[in-house]
Amino acid sequence: MKMTKVVKPHEVERDWHLIDAEGKTFGRILTEAATYLRGKHKPSFTPNVDCGDYVVIINAKKAKFSGNKLDDKEYFRHSGYFGSTKSNKLSDMLENHTEKLYRLAVRGMLPKTKLGRQMLKKLKVYEGAEHPHTAQLNKGK
């Protein structure tokens, strides 16, 4: 009888994945990134171990949005005090805080635990085509 291999944290091999967001739909980019960060694309996936890879997203401002999301969708935050609810439109977030927008969206697709926060640290988002991780990308392939 064949037993399932359970991966230990020190046995995990991490690769680097480059996602070019230019011309792709925002949600499709995020699901691909979340899959790589979680490690579900690997045959050795273990739910209680961070076995995901590093993800670099370039051209983040050039993603496509369907419908009227750029004008209608809002992101809310609240400090806990009365009357302190603030909101930002998706178009403003994309223009001014692109990395924060991508992190918020991917964070919702990862586990809401210490493990999820650890996975999210492996996400790198850049507005343009240049990024400082070229050496790691070439080594991982």
Key terms:
two-stranded antiparallel ribbon, 3-stranded parallel β-sheet, Ribosomal Protein L13p, Chain: A, alpha/beta, 141 residues
Explain what this protein looks like in three dimensions:
The chain is 34% helix and 15% strand. It is an alpha/beta fold and 141 residues long. Helix 1 crosses helix 4 (98-107). It is globular, with a radius of gyration of 17 Å. The longest helix is centred in the N-terminal third of the chain and has 13 residues, at 26-38. Helix 1 (26-38) links the parallel strand 1 and strand 2 (54-58). The mean pLDDT is 92. It has helices spanning 26-38, 69-72, 90-96, 98-107, 114-120, 134-140; strands at 16-20, 54-58, 74-77, 86-89, 123-125. The protein has a domain at 13-66 and 98-140: Ribosomal Protein L13p, Chain: A (Alpha-Beta Complex), CATH 3.90.1180.10. It is built from 6 helices and 5 strands. The strands form 2 sheets. The chain has a 3-stranded parallel beta sheet with strand order 1-2-5. It has a two-stranded antiparallel sheet with strand order 3-4.
